[in-house]
Design goal:
Blueprint lengths: L2 E4 L4 H11 L6 E4 L5 H10 L3 E4 L1 H9 L10
Parallel strand pairs: 1-3, 2-3
């Protein structure tokens, strides 16, 4: 099970998500444009509890079938 958090993400938010989960059982995944998409896809394939994404990259991952929102309530 993982949760999608939709925000207007800036670079500082990316690092805050990693700090938020430090020394916890929460596994974050961060996806944003301008970074290697292959590495981001591999991170998503490993699974995550918290997904932090820019809107454009989130749509891209959804179109590729890597992220779904079927179970979001």
């Amino acid at each position: 099970m993982f949760c999608i958090l939709l925000l207007h993400v800036v670079r500082d938010d990316v690092f805050c998500s990693v700090q938020f989960s430090y020394r916890s059982y929460i596994r974050p995944c961060v996806v944003y444009g301008g970074a290697d998409i292959g590495g981001q896809i591999r991170d998503l394939a490993r699974g995550c509890h918290l997904l932090v994404a820019t809107p454009g990259r989130l749509v891209d991952m959804m179109e590729r079938g890597r992220v779904g929102v079927e179970n979001v309530r």
